[in-house]
Amino acid sequence: MQHASDNWHTGILTIVLSLIIIVRIMMAQRGMVPTIRRIAGLNAIDEAVGRATEMGRPVVMIPGVAPLGVETLQALSIFGYIARSVAKFGNRTIYPTADPMLTGIADETIRDAYAEMGRPELVEPDDIHYLTSSQFAYASGVAGILTRERAAAAFLFGLFYAESLIFAEVGQQVGAVQVAGTPSTTQIPFFIAACDYVIIGDEFYAASAYLSRNATLLGSIAGQDYGKLILLIIVFIGIICASLTAGLGAHAPVFAAKFLKFF
């Protein structure tokens, strides 16, 4: 059985990577904001909003059934951007939730977005409301909204579980343009099959940072990218050292043997 002291190098690596992220966040907060490329799926947001406006049908935002958390707040940041785009074109936004705590925050976010665009009167009292915390009851309620309102665009951002395919299938049946984004890797195949555009995995967090232009989020994304680069370099060196050790056996270079023993 290994002792915790045997993995001291892992602790050092974790500290180094954490420091890189913290330093990059501090740099961004002081004005050195990194540039993040625009994710292709984000271009579909304006296209879907424009189509909904032309058709005179509302936009539905679906945050999933997860309780208020990091992913939900990231999704709310994206929804805020979408709401501003919808308000600019004078259309309606419908936002059903599965968490009572999220409902109040979502209501304030959407109303602020419409007020910012000078269209606060377009927000109807029943457009942002709590349905239920029950997974499939919520899925049924959202399916009913998509069908009754004949939504022209549906945006699915947040954590999703088995209900994801219900949302996507119903949205496809009513002819809505669907843009989805989630860190839930098990649900991504369902979104790819039924949605028009999908923001995959880590792109979900990058999308939130890109749209919000929040310095802390942008700095965190940049720091994580540097950390991934360092890990890739370590893995690459490890592969070379392992290959040399296997090929040369007892005559393997001392550096290769020490590197592999270290990790």
Task: Give the structure's gist in a few sentences.
This protein is an alpha/beta fold. The protein contains ten helices and six strands.
List keywords for this structure.
263 residues, alpha/beta, Rossmann fold, 2 domains, 6 strands, 10% strand, DUF6754 domain-containing protein, DUF6754
Please outline the helices and strands:
Layout: H1 8-29, H2 40-55, E1 59-62, H3 70-88, E2 93-97, H4 100-116, E3 128-130, H5 135-149, E4 153-157, H6 164-173, E5 177-182, H7 188-194, E6 197-200, H8 203-212, H9 215-248, H10 254-262
Parallel strand pairs: 1-2, 1-4, 2-3, 4-5, 5-6
Question: How would you characterize this protein structure?
Answer:
This is DUF6754 domain-containing protein. Pfam families: DUF6754. It comes from Capsulimonas corticalis. The protein is of the alpha/beta class and 263 residues long. 60% of the residues lie in helices and 10% in strands. The protein has ten helices and six strands. Strands 3-2-1-4-5-6 form a six-stranded parallel β-sheet, sandwiched between helices. Helix 1 runs antiparallel to helix 9, helix 3 runs parallel beside helix 4 and helix 8 packs antiparallel against helix 9. The chain is globular, with a radius of gyration of 23 Å.
Reported for the largest beta sheet, the result is:
6 strands, parallel
- Tell me the CATH superfamily of the largest domain: NAD(P)-binding Rossmann-like Domain
Average per-residue pLDDT, rounded, comes to 83
Annotated CATH topology of the largest domain: Rossmann fold
**Topology, number of strands:** 6
The rough form would be described as globular
Structural class: alpha/beta
Kindly, what is the distance between the CA atoms of the first and last residues, rounded to a whole number of angstroms? 17 Å
**Rg result:** 23 Å
Biggest β-sheet: strands ordered side by side in the sheet: 3-2-1-4-5-6
Q: What is the CATH C level class of the largest domain, in words?
A: Alpha Beta
Domain DUF6754: 7-245
Protein name: DUF6754 domain-containing protein
Pfam families: DUF6754 (PF20539)
